[in-house]
Amino acid sequence: MTKQEKSWIMYDWANSVYATIMMAAVFPIYFTGVANSSGQPGDFWWGIASSSGMIVLAVLAPMIGALANFIGYKKRIFLIFLALGIGFTLFSAFTNNWVFLMLGYAISLFAFYGGNLIYDSFLSDVTTPDRMDKISGYGFAFGYIGGSTIPFLISIALITFGSNFGINLTLAVKISVVITAIWWGLFTIPFLKNVKQLYGIEKPKSHPIFRSAFGAVLATAKKIYLDKRLFFFILAYFFYIDGVGTVMRMATAYGTTLGLDATGMILALLVTQLVAFPCSIWFAVLSRRFGTLKIIKGAIFIYLLICFVGFIMGFGLEEGYFGVETALVFFWTLAVLVGTVQGGIQAASRAYFCQMIPPEHSGEFFGFFDIFGKFAAVLGPLMYSVTLGIFGRSSFSIVSIITLFAIALIVLRIGKKHLLK
Questions:
Q1: What is the secondary structure of 169-186 as a DSSP string?
Q2: Are 296 and 286 within 8 A, CB to CB?
């Protein structure tokens, strides 16, 4: 690999710590507890903070991407998001006020995803189209084994054994948040030093830059609609990436509802991260051999299997066909299956999309790629909740997620003659 490719991959190692500590494992529990102790519904405000950051970015993503297309602007915009993300993550370690914690998280979440938008668009600057599958796969792989595992284990050790050294739960969480900010910043240095914007368009001289960017957004939307390759793929991506995200977000909630042991589920999710490391790399190898589109379709079929196994686990437990211990074995099986495809399908999708777009307009195209991913995050959980409300059975809610993957396969089938092999 070139120095630029290695440095680009290293940012996935750097920022994945935020997804694990701040978004999933440690900070949500801490925030909910602080808000609840202040007489506030912590889970409600956590949902507000999470959705507000996502929605704001989803709305602004096309404009941000269009601005990043101007030569010299991509790295500047990335630095703004990086500073906001690390700064407000660090801010969250030095306040005990639930309102400030919520605001800090919402801003850092917005910055985290905004930085990822720009980071994804740099893929066309650091490598060639024939190597995008490999480099994208290695990015996700090192994100899983690095930021998603090492700091997480340190945090769990602090929370579990910190009392033996005079570290209470609150202090353990604050130290974990500080580690997150330091890890994120430290391992971003290679990216800042070595990754350069090679492709772009000249900044307009005759009219304001924001006006030009807005015009570029409209032009890109029209290009995506008229280009059948992009249109069919991004439409299918909307549905299957929502299914992928729903499986990720609802797994522990589903297991908790069924009465599974929390410790067992956390350990299973750790296994998911470990399995995802080699499998993300393996997906890149398979993509080069069989074609990226075939690998994406194969991953969708595996997710259909995951949903089916999840349904059997829940239905069997609800009907009393087996006990919680057997259901936990199902959950561990699901954790391994998810690990085999979770990073691979995301990496393959990023590379496949990047291969279809002009490199000098990567920012604005990834702005739309990002907006489809963010708005898709709403549909799956909503279908899960509505199905649960209608039937009163958590297992039936899993069946509803199958619909998302099925629609994605249908769209890919309809657009088969237009899509790249």
A1: HHHHHHHHHHHHHHHHHH
A2: no
Largest Cα separation within the chain, whole Å, is: 72
Per-residue pLDDT of 270-306, as tens digits, reads 788 788 888 888 888 888 888 888 899 999 999 999 8
Rounded to 10 degrees, the C-alpha dihedral 409/410/412/415 comes to: 170
Q: How far is CA 106 from CA 92, 147, 381, in A?
A: 11, 20, 20
Q: What is the DSSP letter of 23?
A: I
Structure tokens given for 336: 């391994």
| DSSP summary character for residue 94 | G
In contact, 365 and 385? CB cutoff 8 Å: no
In whole angstroms, give the CA distance from residue 120 to residue 142.
Answer: 15
The correct answer on CATH 1.10.760.10 for the domain covering 3-414 is: no
| Placement of tokens 């120095």 in the chain | 3
3-state SS record for 221-240: HHHHHHCHHHHHHHHHHHHH
Report the pLDDT averaged over residues 181-195: 94
Buried b (16+ CB within 10 A) or exposed e, 278-301: ebbbbbbebbeeeebbebbbbbbe
**63-93 residue pLDDT tens:** 888 788 788 888 999 999 999 999 999 999 9
For 103-108, the CB contacts below 8 A with 24+ separation are: 103/49, 105/22, 105/27, 105/31, 105/49, 105/50, 105/53, 106/49, 106/50, 106/52, 106/53, 107/53, 108/18, 108/22, 108/53, 108/84
- Whether the predicted pLDDT of 13 surpasses 70: yes
Report domain extents, the chain: 3-414
